[in-house]
Amino acid sequence: MMKKSTKLLILASVLTLPIAFTGCSKLNKSKSSTTGWNYNDSKNGGFQKVPYKNDKIGPGLVPIEGGTFVMGSIEQDLAYENNNSERRVTVTSFYMDETEVANIDWLEYLYWLGRVYKNNPQVYQQALPDTLVWRNPLAYNEPYVDNYLRHPAFQDYPVVGVSWDQAQAYCIWRTDRANEQILISKGIMKPNTNQAGADNFTTDSYYAGQYEGLVGKGVKNLDPGAANKTRPVRMSDGIMLPGEYRLPTEAEWEYAALSLKGNVKYENIQERKIYPWNGLTQRSAHGKTQGLFLANFKRGKGDNSGVAGYLNDDADITAPVKSYLPNDFGLYNMAGNVNEWVQDVYRPLSFEDVSDLNPFRGNEFKIKAKEKNGNYVKKDSLGRIPRIPDTVKITVDGKHIVKKDDVRGQDDPMEMYGYPATSLITNKSRVYKGGSWNDRAYWLTPGSRRFLAQDSASAEIGFRCAMGRVGPPSIGKTKNKPSFKSK
């Protein structure tokens, strides 16, 4: 039998192993390991170190843990376009809307625009969806033209008739409203319903010191030379959102739709998916839902919903945004209901050009405009700091330096030889994915892709937002996965 003193010696040795392995004895939360000066101490100059454990997830978003996957179509290429050949890529972790943006979300947006920019009605008019997308010269769809956007019966249905440009503007607005609410909820600002015109909260103007609003308690100022005991929030405080709401990239959207998370065991993908769910068909194979369609799509010519008494997908046009089962990431309607805009510019051969880490075509590099003295220029009539092209240096294959602010057509033969002047494919052609209520099952596969001009709209296209993640890629704990721990 082991002696008590021997047990204590072994226990002490085990407890000291992680410290010796990770070097954690050097870490000190209250003092710099570089200079020995105290953090968060006004007597030592007031440099702040903010404790930061996790990202702040914006309203409506769910976390998507990134990873590697095979991007591209695994179905037949019915149109013989060869625009989505398979290739392995990696997508870093991000966040995505649980559902498509609904009519009620867009009506809230319109209401805010009408209230704040009442002296500039053009802003409101430009945000109105094109309800005439429902009109068909040989069909009676006028009830949708009149009612689909505003009638409460449709408030939880996906917004349609919205162009890519309008979706981009909505993302900017949503970022500002979410950040404003964070500051209000923490008491840093007070609610101000009298904002009007340029005098409204935007994230950029707040960070630039061009918007104060109704100031609340503020953040404690540790600068010993500061006249005020409080100050506005800085990005380095980690209080506001870590990024902006935006459209997902094509790779992010496809990765999130496939949701391989449910098929992984010890880094092995057990079953390849054709759709956002397991199996080879579009129907449920389980329990009380057996035989029901798993998405809203058109089964065949003239069959949008099935027969009376047993409607196959229970939808003739769109369906509420939380219809059917979510995929393994918890996302609803990543197949069917409405197609969804993504961020990318369309090129048939993007898979040959783009990077294998966070692949994306569509970069227009821009920065917030500054004056010669280094201060940001005055905000515009919408209350935003103008953004201008940023001529940047890009390393290609470790050899070439390209100085361009707009690289949407980078390495694209169509642009090199001037084809965009006559082709339907231009730098304003944007990808949409997912299939819709009016599409056949072929388009439900995450790898399928189509395009439309960014200022155009359709009754079959909506969108959802995404946001980048900062910090480590892992989200939550993986069962039975070993990990290194530090004290």
Automatic annotation (TrEMBL):
<dbReference type="InterPro" id="IPR005532">
    <property type="entry name" value="SUMF_dom"/>
</dbReference>
<dbReference type="Pfam" id="PF03781">
    <property type="entry name" value="FGE-sulfatase"/>
</dbReference>
<feature type="domain" description="Sulfatase-modifying factor enzyme-like">
    <location>
        <begin position="59"/>
        <end position="357"/>
    </location>
</feature>
<dbReference type="InterPro" id="IPR016187">
    <property type="entry name" value="CTDL_fold"/>
</dbReference>
<keyword id="KW-0732">Signal</keyword>
<dbReference type="InterPro" id="IPR042095">
    <property type="entry name" value="SUMF_sf"/>
</dbReference>
<keyword id="KW-0449">Lipoprotein</keyword>
<protein>
    <submittedName>
        <fullName>Gliding motility-associated lipoprotein GldJ/gliding motility-associated lipoprotein GldJ,TIGR03530</fullName>
    </submittedName>
</protein>
<feature type="signal peptide">
    <location>
        <begin position="1"/>
        <end position="22"/>
    </location>
</feature>
<dbReference type="GO" id="GO:0120147">
    <property type="term" value="F:formylglycine-generating oxidase activity"/>
</dbReference>
<dbReference type="InterPro" id="IPR051043">
    <property type="entry name" value="Sulfatase_Mod_Factor_Kinase"/>
</dbReference>
